Automatic annotation (TrEMBL):
Signal peptide: 1-38
Classification via SUPFAM superfamilies: Periplasmic binding protein-like II
Protein's organism: Salinicola endophyticus
Record's keyword annotation contains Signal: yes
Alphabetically ordered keywords of this record: Signal
CDD domains attached to this UniProt entry: PBP2_Bug_TTT
InterPro entries listed in its UniProt record: BUG, Bug_dom1
UniProt key word Signal: yes
Protein name per UniProt: Tripartite tricarboxylate transporter substrate binding protein
Length: 332
């Protein structure tokens, strides 16, 4: 009887060992069949910036990059690579044509990136990217020198209507949020302005401070620190900015004008679903990161996280605005 029990135990043990071996083999087979991106990221992630080092977009990429690393895990590494030229087009193109594996991302500037698909030949369009997340929104303003006779937006508009085309407006460049703000202002007020493009916002601001132009339209962040020299007449957003709570929006003053600069991150179209989900989740987590919010606020930028489909919708809307303005007022 004991021998019989021992035999049963031996059979049972052998069966258990066999089942365990089968289970381990199955797990090993399943693991070997997992795609390579299961361990993502297992090498540095390169972020292409289509502008020079030290500029606003470059600084944003480096600030966000360090927080993104933490969200992606201890081994994650985000490396910024500057590829300036053609107003950012070289960088946008580099991202659109890169391998869609999650190791090449890029900063994305709206509406400028979309305007380039209308005013020149571009190797990308609004559907060339997987949209990860917008990160900041910097609304445009209408601003004058503190020496200006215009103290309200209505003062400015009345003067423009009295002599259409007589008031000069400083812009950082053509085909971007500053230019579009001026065009939308002219349309909303049914008058004309003399648009003067400069090579960058700092030069436009200098011309305004020097009295060489009557008014400027520039991002709110570009007015911060000049409280004693500039008077902001309106913020072109749907609500007042925490950086200028006493300045009314254009909408509050009866003119439905909204325009600004959006900066976020995209990837080449066709990311593996697992990688895209991982990246979008990491960016979504940044919405509640107070350290990031404070660091951006110190630069005059408001954190505005819009992930995935919401970001794509924003890009499409900005593309349609750029298209309509190009058709009505081609600038090249």
């Amino acid at each position: 009887m004991l021998k019989t029990l021992d035999a049963v135990r031996d059979v049972s043990t052998q069966a258990t060992r066999a089942l365990a071996a089968i289970a381990l083999s199955t797990l090993a087979l399943a693991a070997s069949s997992l795609p390579a991106f299961a361990a993502y990221p297992d090498k540095p992630i390169e972020v292409i910036v289509g502008y020079s080092a030290g500029g606003g977009t470059d600084v944003l990429a480096r600030v966000v990059g360090k927080y993104l690393e933490r969200e992606l895990g201890e081994d994650a590494s985000v490396v910024v690579k500057n590829q300036p030229g053609a107003g950012g087009q070289i960088g946008f193109t580099r991202v659109a044509t890169a391998k869609a594996d999650g190791y090449t991302l890029g900063t994305f500037n709206l509406p400028a990136a979309m305007a380039m698909t209308y005013d020149r030949k571009a190797a990308y369009d609004v559907d060339s990217f997987d949209y990860l997340a917008n990160v900041v929104h910097d609304p445009n303003t209408l601003v004058v020198s503190k020496q200006s006779p215009y103290h309200t937006l209505d003062d400015l508009i009345q003067a423009a209507r009295a002599e259409p085309g007589s008031l000069s407006v400083a812009l950082s460049a053509l085909g971007g949020n500053d230019h579009f703000s001026a065009l939308l202002l002219a349309a909303a007020t049914d008058t004309q302005f003399n648009l003067i493009p400069f090579n960058g916002a700092s030069m436009a601001r200098t011309a305004l401070l020097g009295g060489h132009v009557a008014v400027g339209t520039m991002a709110l962040s570009q007015t911060i620190g000049f409280d004693d020299e500039l008077r902001v007449l309106a913020v072109l957003d749907d609500k007042r900015s925490p950086f200028a709570p006493d300045v009314p929006t254009a909408k509050e003053q009866g003119y439905a004008i909204e325009m600004g600069s959006y900066r976020g991150f995209v990837a080449p179209k066709g990311l593996p679903d697992e990688v895209k989900t991982r990246l979008r989740a990491a960016f979504a987590a940044l919405a509640d990161n107070t350290a990031l919010r404070d660091e951006l606020a110190a630069q005059g930028n408001a954190l505005d996280i819009r992930v995935g489909d919401d970001y794509r919708a924003l890009a499409k809307a900005q593309s349609e605005t750029a298209k309509a303005l190009w058709q009505q007022h081609p600038w090249k």
